[in-house]
Amino acid sequence: MPHISAAAALQICMLLSALPAQYLLSQWYGTDSTQRIQITERLIIASWSSFTKSYLSLDAWADHLKLWLSKTRTHLNVGLLILHFRNWYYGEKKTKTGDNEAETHSYFAESTHVRSPKPEYIQFSVGQVIFHKRFGYSGVIVGWDVKAKAPEEWLQHKYPPAKQGLKDTPHYRILINKANGSGKSTAYIPEEEITIIMGLEVHHPDMKAYFSGYDGSKYIMQPWLKKIYPHD
């Protein structure tokens, strides 16, 4: 049965208390006993009708249940909302394949394409805490691509001619630990620049959207994220 809110409980009390109050008024202002009885009967019928429509109706309880369910689903849906917003922001594109089927691509490990099977050469997993070897910040992995997927302009700026080969290596999307005070919120980095660390918790405003908890070695993915990375 759906939970009765404080506002609903107060309304019930007001309805129940209104009847004796109005009955007393009718005793004072009614001209005779017949009129008082008629007024009281009308009050009982009106109060009961209002109460049944609000709390004894299947439609009313269905509405309460829908509202309660919508609130419980909000936490699970927030991760998908963030993911879809970022897909739009970074320029999700649809390209036509040879057989004219639409295939969705997105940048920076934000694709909702299920990563299965997982290639053996992908060393790390979503939920693991990492340390950046060069820049010294920590963070948590929230996605990966088998090779860099980003706008060509970004890749050219990120990788000079001497490092062009890194574009074809696994890349990871990172939520950067706010405790580092680096000023950056996320990063998209190649596998060779990170190493895994244990026992360190990451603080970031989006953590609950991606993870439900921390077991001391890695973060536990939310169900929607686990569907994308079933082998991590």
Automatic annotation (TrEMBL):
Domain Hemimethylated DNA-binding: 121-222
Membrane-spanning intervals of the chain: none
Keyword Oxidoreductase (UniProt): no
Signal peptide: 1-26
Keyword Signal: yes
The organism's place on the tree of life at top rank: Eukaryota
Gene3D superfamilies, per database record: Hemimethylated DNA-binding domain (2.30.30.390)
Matches recorded under Pfam families: YccV-like
Matching InterPro entries: Clp_protease_adapter_ClpF, Hemimethylated_DNA-bd_dom, Hemimethylated_DNA-bd_sf
Keywords: Signal
Single GO MF descriptor: DNA binding
SUPFAM superfamilies linked: YccV-like
NCBIfam families in the cross-refs: yccV (TIGR02097)
Protein name: FBX21 protein
Taxonomic source organism: Nyctibius grandis (Great potoo)
